[in-house]
Every structure is written in structure tokens, then in C-alpha cells.
From TrEMBL:
SMART domains: IG. One of its GO terms (molecular function) is signaling receptor binding. This is Ig-like domain-containing protein. Gene3D superfamilies: Immunoglobulins (2.60.40.10). Residues 40-118, 122-226 form the Ig-like domain. Residues 1-23 form the signal peptide. It comes from the Eukaryota. InterPro entries: BTN3A2-like_Ig-C, Ig-like_dom, Ig-like_dom_sf, Ig-like_fold, Ig_sub, Ig_V-set, IgSF_BTN/MOG. Keywords: Disulfide bond, Glycoprotein, Immunoglobulin domain, Membrane, Signal, Transmembrane, Transmembrane helix. It comes from Erpetoichthys calabaricus (Rope fish). Belongs to the SKINT family. Pfam families: C2-set_3 (PF22705), V-set (PF07686).
Length: 246
């Protein structure tokens, strides 16, 4: 009987011990907004444990579309799987619950929703972080491609943007005439956008400018086009880019 009691006590102690070490509940905390980066920059997708437990003995899995093909898998105190050496954890920071992913020299193809899944024993918690990669494209140029009825068709286009920029048209008085324009864009083989905005205007003396602006606070690229009537020659145009923003 003494042996039996001893065994029961041992089992109880064991269960209690295991229960105690597994009971350290945590959550994975990320930013409340998406992360914006420019092509070529290094970007950190910030994720940390709350409370700030030591994650060195945990499993940390970063993936986008498929949980079973992670971009990075850390387990058994080391990096087990890494698809691309541009990505890393701050391994010395795992101790303080920092499970952030760094992505070096960001590409457009890195864009997406990332999941950071942290597992400790039976506990699993995750956080999702959206990475947007911006490319400030080429300066737009305006062409007068055709006339449709009494109107002249002005097309303002530029290549290699991501995401789609804001396009603003103004006339000579600075009035915003963007609402009369239509915009379309298509992706090229690199995944970047060719953006084209069309404005139909009456053939009269006027100056139109087209501005493409990144939604993030970086430089703008304006482009200006002068249209003026000249006798019976009809409309002439000159494209006059200038390095000044509105
Ligand atoms: C994690 O550590 C890195 C490197 O020191 C730091 O830049 C980042 O802000 C930390 N992230 C969090 C969420 O604490």
C-alpha cells in the first residue's frame, strides 16, 4: 500500500508540474495597422508575446498562404526551415518574447498577409500582419491620343507603380477636374502597375496638368500639358513637366 500511495503522489506531482508549466498562457501581439515598405528597404514585421515570455523553447512559425510550407520555422532552439535568407528572426530577442520577422531588401512579391504562429506545448496563438510594398513609379507623361467628337482625349500614363497612385487633373485655373477622368491600370510581368488616366476636354485654350501621387508621404511626380488653339491648325500640344508639387 505504501508503494501504491507513493505512485499516486508521484503521478499527482507530475500532472501538477506539467499543468503548471503549460498554464503560462500568452497571446501574440502585432501592429493594429498594415506595414508599408518601399522596394529595396529592410522591413520588420513586429510581433511579440504578451506577457513577454521567453520564447526560446517555443515553436515560431511565419507563413503566408500555407501553414505547412512556412517562410521560416523556429523549433528546438534553432531555425529549422528557411526558404529565403532575406528573412530572419531576432534570435537574441526571443528571450524577451520578441518574435518579429525581418525581411531584407523587400520585393513586390513579398506583399501579403503574414501569420506568426507561436506554439508552446498544447498552446498555440497567432497574429496576422499585412505587408504592403510600395513602388514610386516613373514620372507620368501626357499624350493627346485622339479626338472624340468635339472633345480632345488626353491620356496621362506612367509605369511601374505599386499600389495604384492617386491621380489628380487640374486645369489652368488650378480647378480639380479629376472627376471628369477615368482611370485604369494593369499589372506587368513584374507585378507592377501601368496606370493610365483619360480626360476628355474641349478644344480651347487651356493648360492641363496631371499629378500622380503615392498614397504614402513620398515625392510626387507632376506632369503638365499645354493645349492652345492656333488658327485653323487646331490644337497643338506641348508637354512641360515641372518639378513642383501642388
Ligand atoms: C524586436 O527586436 C527588434 C531588434 O532589436 C526591434 O527592432 C523590434 O522593434 C522588436 N520588436 C518588438 C515587437 O518588440
Amino acid at each position: 500500500m505504501i508503494v501504491h500511495t507513493g505512485l499516486s503522489l508521484f503521478i499527482l506531482w507530475f500532472l501538477h508540474h506539467v499543468d503548471f508549466s503549460w498554464a503560462e498562457r500568452f497571446t501574440v501581439v502585432g501592429p493594429s495597422h498594415s506595414i508599408v515598405s518601399y522596394v529595396g528597404e529592410d522591413v520588420i514585421l513586429p510581433a511579440s508575446l504578451s506577457p513577454a515570455l521567453d520564447a526560446e523553447g517555443f515553436e515560431v512559425r511565419w507563413f503566408t498562404t500555407n501553414i505547412y510550407t512556412p517562410l521560416l520555422l523556429y523549433a528546438d532552439y534553432k531555425i529549422i526551415n528557411l526558404i529565403d535568407s532575406r528573412r530572419a528572426l531576432f534570435q537574441e530577442k526571443l528571450k524577451s518574447g520578441n518574435v518579429s520577422l525581418i525581411v531584407q531588401s523587400v520585393r513586390v512579391s513579398d506583399e501579403g498577409v503574414y501569420t506568426c504562429l507561436v506554439a508552446s506545448g498544447p498552446l498555440e496563438e497567432d497574429v496576422k500582419i499585412t505587408l504592403n510594398v510600395e513602388v514610386l513609379g516613373a514620372q507620368p507623361s501626357i499624350t493627346m491620343s485622339s479626338t472624340e467628337g468635339q472633345k480632345t482625349r488626353l491620356e496621362c500614363s506612367a509605369e511601374k507603380w505599386n499600389p495604384q497612385p492617386e491621380v489628380t487633373w487640374r486645369d489652368m485655373n488650378g480647378a480639380d477636374v479629376t472627376s471628369q477622368s477615368t482611370i485604369k491600370s494593369e499589372r506587368d510581368s513584374e507585378g507592377l502597375l501601368r496606370v493610365s488616366s483619360v480626360l476628355l476636354v474641349k478644344e480651347e485654350y487651356n493648360v492641363f496638368s496631371c499629378l500622380m501621387r503615392s498614397k504614402a508621404p513620398k515625392p510626387d511626380w507632376p506632369s503638365e500639358l499645354n493645349i492652345y488653339s492656333e488658327g485653323s491648325d487646331g490644337v497643338k500640344l506641348s508637354s512641360l513637366p515641372f518639378a513642383q508639387t501642388f
